[in-house]
Design brief:
Strand content: 15-25%
Number of helices: 15
Number of strands: 17
Largest sheet: 7 strands, mixed
Shape: globular
Oligomer: single chain
Bound molecules: 4'-deoxy-4'-aminopyridoxal-5'-phosphate
Distance between the termini: 39 Å
Structural class: alpha/beta
Strand order of the largest sheet: 4-10-9-8-7-5-6
């Protein structure tokens, strides 16, 4: 996309001007957490400086301003996901809490001994462990949808796993290790044909792909703010109204109740039923600003820039001796995991840090997936809207140099 001015975009991110060990920062750890534009940082300051109080129960000016900001952010998230109504958006601390919320309310009510939960082998631990809780505590059975050697999701194999005991499908829309994009709309269609609800983990995909929860027709969709150029401590759960309104509460406390008496309690309507206590008010407002920022650039322009970075990175890394890229699926986002024969992923990450490069090394909270590929760790370079082709060159040169050193 010729009109994409990455230099201009980079100016929006103050941290990108840093020098690390005397070298310009090359930040390629975006799948773990993305950096924040001035628009978000300024919005946070503004909210704390002139719009701050607790939300919902106040009758004073600042309480109203904070409530407007917080509820306005909910509208922005609803728009971002194309939800039909903003009360289908529950604010959480992140994707992890959103998935735990669904597992512990919706899941625990419906899933008993011998009932099956289908996950993909690519799931992040955030979309595994909450279901393991149901295995441990309710006697549920977890089944794993496979990927092939290139990391392609195998939809026919997935379909074969569904039985009349399947009570839930929980699946990522984009692997945080391989970058594989899962055809979630197709997954939902297949599951719904058997009456099985589907949770989609959009922690990675929502940053890179257009998301339309009504088109996907998923029952639940989760996002996390810090990967979307927003603050930490904020995420969101989209849930179909018919589900949210029937679900029991998750955490108990203020804000989520209708009445509390000595011998009984009644609960509020969604989304407040699921937002016990003082919520992450300013973080939500910051997430709203991040969504505005992304929209101001445009997801499709961001995506074509990132796709071009991905293609270039894969070409450059393939030139390096004994480097093996893990995950070359046909549908793939801007994440490259690789293994180097001559040394451990941690050693490579540590060495290239000296060149100012930030990548992640390890299991990326996806141990079943690494087991599937027979590796104990990978290095991962993950790209964002502000990365450049020059940075790919810096990475490739640093890896080649480290490779010579270790060999
Ligand atoms: N799912 C995926 C695919 C992720 O990549 C992550 C974050 N690495 C999560 C869930 C969890 O997000 P958070 O830690 O923000 O709750």
């Amino acid at each position: 996309n010729g009109s994409y001015d990455v230099g201009r975009v980079r100016e929006d991110f103050p941290i990108l001007g840093m020098q690390i060990h005397g070298k310009p920062l090359v930040y390629l750890d975006n799948a773990a957490s993305a950096q924040k534009p001035k628009a978000v940082l300024n919005r946070l300051t503004q909210a704390y400086t002139s719009e701050y109080a607790n939300v919902h129960r106040g009758l004073h000016y600042l309480a109203n301003a904070a409530t407007e900001g917080y509820e306005g952010a909910r509208e922005k998230v609803a728009g971002f996901l194309n939800a039909g109504r903003s009360d289908e958006i529950v604010f959480t601390r992140g994707a992890t809490e959103a998935i735990n919320l669904v597992a512990q309310t919706f899941g625990r009510e419906r899933i008993g001994p011998g009932d099956e939960i289908v996950l993909s082998i690519m799931e992040h631990h955030a979309n595994i462990v909450p279901w393991h809780f149901l295995r441990e505590r309710q006697g549920a059975v977890i089944k794993w949808a496979p990927v092939d050697e290139d990391g392609n999701f195998l939809i026919d194999e997935f379909e074969k796993l569904l039985t009349d005991r399947t009570k839930m499908v929980a699946i990522t829309q984009m692997s945080n290790v391989l970058g594989t994009v899962v055809p979630v709309k197709e997954v939902v269609r297949i599951a719904h044909a058997r009456g099985i609800p589907v949770l989609v983990d959009g922690a990675q995909s929502s940053v890179h792909l257009d998301v339309d929860v009504r088109d996907i027709d998923c029952d639940f969709y989760v996002i996390t703010g810090h990967k979307l150029y927003g603050p930490t401590g904020i995420g969101a759960l989209y849930g179909k109204h018919e589900h949210l309104s029937a679900m029991p509460p998750f955490n108990g406390g203020g804000e989520m109740i209708r009445e509390v008496h000595r011998d009984y309690v009644t609960y509020g309507e969604p989304p407040h039923r699921f937002e016990a206590g003082t919520p992450p008010i300013v973080q939500a407002i910051g997430l709203g600003a991040a969504i505005d920022y992304i929209n101001s650039i445009g997801k499709s322009r961001i995506r074509s820039h990132e796709n071009s970075l991905l293609a270039y990175a894969q070409d450059r890394l393939r030139e390096i001796n004994s480097l093996r890229i893990i995950g070359t699926a046909a549908e793939k986002g801007a994440i490259v995991s690789f293994e180097m024969k001559s040394a451990h992923a941690h050693d490579f990450a540590t060495v290239i840090d000296r060149a100012g490069i930030a990548v992640r090394a390890g299991t990326h909270c996806a141990m079943p997936l690494l087991e599937r590929f027979g590796v104990t760790a990978t290095c991962r370079a993950s790209f964002a809207l502000y990365n450049t082709h020059d940075e790919v060159d810096v990475l490739a040169r640093a890896l080649a140099k480290a490779q010579e050193f270790f060999a």
